[in-house]
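Data availability (excerpt). All sequences and predicted C-alpha cell strings are deposited with the supplementary files. A representative entry, Ketoreductase RED1, is shown inline so that the format can be inspected without opening the archive.
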Amino acid sequence: MLTVTSDEARTAEDVTERTGSAATPGAVAVIGTGVIALGWIALFAAAGYEVRISSTRPDAEEHVREALALYADSLPQGALPLQKLTERLVFTPDVESAVTGVEAVQENALEDLELKQALFARIAAAAPADALLLSSTSTLLPDDLGALLPEPGRVVVGHPFNPPHIVPLVEVVAGEQAEAGLIERVVAFYRELGKVPVVLRRAVPGFVANRLQSALLRESIHLVREGVVTVDELDAVVTSSIGPRWAVVGPFRAFHLAGGPGGLRHWLEHLGKGLELSWTGLGNPPVDRATVDLLLEQVDASFGTEPYRSLAARRDVEQNAVIAAVAAARAEQE
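C-alpha cell line:
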C-alpha cells in the first residue's frame, strides 16, 4: 500500500512521534475507500476521531479528499469546513500501521470471504486486544469473517445503510461466540456517533434492511418489466406513499393504524387471510439482458446521465431534511 502525505493528512509515523506512543486515544481505522468507507470516514472525522485510512488505491488521498468535499456540506450535524475533516486523516502504508493503537476498525473491503478473513487475521494480530473489529459487509456472516482468529467472536458486523454518514441505521450482527459485553460496547460506539444501532437476534444472510429492500426491488423490476409503470413512475409511487409513511412508522405500526381502534388484530382478522393469496401474485422477474437494457434505457432517459455529485448532493440535502423534520416533530411531542 502507498503512503501519502500532505499538509492536511499525516502519516502514522507522525502520530507516533506526536504522542510518544503508537497508542493514540480517539483513533479509528477505516479499511478501504469505496462508497461506504468514504461515508464512514466523513462521519468519524466529523465526530472528532483521528481516522487512519488504509487503501490499496494509489490515489487514495486525492480520492478521499474529493469525496469529503461533497460530504462536508451534508453532515447531519451541519456543514463543516473541509479542512476540519482532512486534518484528522492519517494515510498509512499498510493495515498493521492503520490499526495500531486504535479504538475501533471499520472494514470495508470487497465482498470476498477469503480476503476479509485474511484481513481480520492481520487486523486482530496488530490492533489492541480491546479494539472493536467491525465489518460493513452486507452479505457475509460474522462467524465466517472471524473464522481464522483465535477468538472468532471478536468480529462483529456493523452494517450501515447508504449513505452511512447520513442514514441512521447500523445493523449489529454478532457471531455465536461474541460476548454480551462486546455487543454492548459496539452499540455504545455507534450510538455515540449519532447512529441507530439495531442488534439482530439471529444472524441471517442479507440481514434485515437489505432483505426488505430486495423484496421491494424485485417487485419494482417486475412492474416496470411488465409495462405497468416506468422507472420514474415507480419512484414517484414510492416517494409519494410508502416512503413518507415509513419515515415515521414501520410496516407493523402502519398496518396497526390501518386497523383503526382495533389495531393490527382487527386488520389481520379481516384482511390477513388474503395476504398469502396476494403474495402468490407477486413477480419474480429475471435479471436478464433484456430486463437490464429496459431499466437502463429508462434511467438514462431520466436521471442516469446527471453527474453523480449533483444527484448525491440533492439526495443528501433532502434526506437530512426528512430526518431532521421527523426528529423535531418527535421532540415537540415529548
